Amino acid sequence: MLMKAQAEAAGNAERRPNMPRPMTGNEAIARGAWEAGVKVAASYPGTPSTEIMESLATYDAGDLHAQWSTNEKVAMDVAIGASLSGVRALASMKHVGVNVAADSIMSQTYIGVHGGLVLAVCDDPGIHSSQNEQDTRVFCRLSNIPALEPSDAQEALDFTRLAFELSEEFDTAVIVRATTRLSHTRSPVMVGPREEHPSKGWVDDSQKTVMIPAYARIRHPELIKREERLREYFEKSELTRWDKGETSFGIITHGTCYPYVKEVVPEASVLKLAASYPLPTKAIEEFCKSVDRVFVVEELEPVIETEVRALGISAEGKEFFPRVGELSPEGVRAGLAKAGVVEAPGEVHDWGVTPVVRPPVLCPGCPHTSNYMALRALDARIAGDIGCYTLAAVEPLKAIESTVCMGASIGNAVGIAKSGSEQKPIVATLGDSTFLHAGIPPLIDAVYNQANITVLILDNQVTAMTGGQDHPGTGRTLRGEETHKVEYEDLCRAVGVEWVRTVDSYDVAAVYQTLRESTEYKGVAVVISNRPCVLDPVKLRGPALAVTAAGCVACQACMNLGCPSITWIDEVYEGHRKVAIDPATCIGCTLCAQVCPSDCIKPVS
Ligand SMILES: Cc1ncc(C[n+]2csc(CCOP(=O)(O)OP(=O)(O)O)c2C)c(N)n1
After folding, report:
1. In the predicted model, is pLDDT for residue 14 greater than 70?
2. CA-to-CA distance for 508 and 501, rounded, in angstroms?
3. Of 119, 154, 370, 409, which cross-links 428 as Cys (Cβ 3.0–4.6 Å)?
4. Could you say which DSSP state residue 469 is in?
């Protein structure tokens, strides 16, 4: 079975007579899971992993169930349940999602699998779109879960197929780890047909599936034995590849670092690892004996370097390559040049042009804007959360004062309130998707512990930041079917919140008034500020607005909304520049007209 999968993973052209097609790493992971016969797949969106589930959902619904879950732990639990029921299952998430799912994963690893279970995790070195750049390879060691490391989209497909095989063969979940560069880069992929894997039925072995202390004690040694069996597998696997080269030094690498190394030193001796855990130690020792110096080229933590050194080999790495950020061919060249084994990079040509800094901004007409205008006017202490609205932490809204991770705002607000040192009104602000993901337990906590805070739920009826995914508050599933829609007011009242109001985010006066009243309330008050995201297909679009320049007193009240449709013009009033509105991008939300004291902003008729 494994040999077959290996042959396929190595690229059996006969099996794939069709032409290659360009795919991103994420699309290839989805395709690999589909070809492997996955039956249940669950995820919570998060850049750079989101498109795995979106892509999988484009395949025939037949016997494949794909879903958005409320958070990553639920997604993992869904996949575990399906695996125990004897079908192949996939969970996908971004690196920080692993923290949310960690409790389930750390026990699942004792239980093992029945149907193959694959966890696709996408790390974000360089923090393109995350709150940190943690290295999932460290978690793979902690959980004793093998991690496959594809280098391009073809390997992303092949390794995902292989991951299902390995999962069943070695009775373990398998992580397929991508990074932003692989997830979002297209390269040619040969695809194959779907394999059918009928359900094996329920596993029926409670000593293995019920993790009470007596059974967990039996299972833990099994993990250690499993690690050794997997190590043996990777020792022998053709996927642990030694590119015999001409250099006296050798490079150990994997994943997206491999093509960087090949680009910079195509003539080098390279040991390409298919898995970052467990490591094929004998193959590594043999490789290292064949060269004078060994470099480990890996992004983020010195995970492989540390293990190679533990074998008594004086491997070099992090003294030449950074421990933070993303690597690149330029970064690999710079590191190897510092080590004195390749020529230093030539002078970079200075084109004499400094690119304009373009910080991300909220969209024109974003319904989040009015809430932060109001909270600033109320001089509130604002605990923030993660979503588009996190942009309210910077100018010009500059209102949010803490952002930790998804769902943290309410607990943070409770802590601020209980510290007794805050005189300002305390407000937690979080989006609808974030509230459902991790905001409900802390809301219960706030009520239970009688905190004096306002919770502002920014309900734009979508998970906007990751591209507009549905969630249980939208009433639609991943495949667009209608389903139950969470009613936030009912939910808040059910957990004991007595003061709950819903307000239209586009009504500036009502937003201010409602938030002011909420902060005067003693106890937990919840305000639901409601308007669809402007990028949502069902958005309300009014006529664009225009400024009558003669009436503009350059007060900057509209400019302070931070709306990208509002720009300065050359005309001035008392030394300050007047404004104009770009009719091409204005969506007619009227926020600027509502804050304009001279009443000179009107819809274009
Ligand atoms: C644990 C975790 N999972 C996923 C993400 C990716 N992510 C960032 S914000 C967000 C949700 C945004 O939706 P919402 O709270 O409704 O705010 P919006 O962007 O719509 O304003 C997601 C999924 C993350 N940062 N952390």
Report:
1. no
2. 15
3. 409
4. B
CATH topology of domain 545-603: Alpha-Beta Plaits (3.30.70)
- CB contact at 8 A, 16 and 190: yes
Provide the pLDDT confidence category of residue 535 given band limits of 50, 70 and 90.
confident
37-68 pLDDT per residue, tens? 999 999 999 999 999 999 999 998 788 999 99
Which is the closest atom of ligand 1 to the Cα of 71?
3
Cβ(466) to ligand 1 under 6 A? yes
Contact 458, 431 (CB under 8 A): yes
Cα 412 to averaged position of ligand 1 atoms, centre (Å): 17
Instruction: List the structure tokens of 93.
Output: 């998430």
CA-nearest residue, atom 9 of ligand 1? 387
Which residue has a Cα nearest atom 10 of ligand 1?
387
414 touches 450 (CB < 8 A): no
Domain 2-236 falls in which CATH fold?
Rossmann fold (3.40.50)
pLDDT digits (tens, 9 = 90+) for 155-198: 999 999 999 999 999 999 999 999 999 999 999 999 999 999 99
What pTM was computed for the model? 0.93
> Is there an atom of ligand 1 within 6 Å of 433 CB?
yes
Residue nearest to atom 6 of ligand 1 (CA): 46
What own/partner pairs with CB < 8 Å and gap ≥ 24 does 488-496 have? 488/432, 488/435, 488/457, 488/459, 488/526, 488/528, 489/528, 491/440, 492/443, 492/526, 495/440, 495/443, 495/444, 495/447, 496/444, 496/447, 496/448, 496/524
CATH classification code of 241-338: 3.40.50.920
The Å distance, Cα 433 to ligand 1 centre, comes to 7
Each domain of the chain, given as residue ranges in start order, spans: 2-236, 241-338, 369-530, 545-603
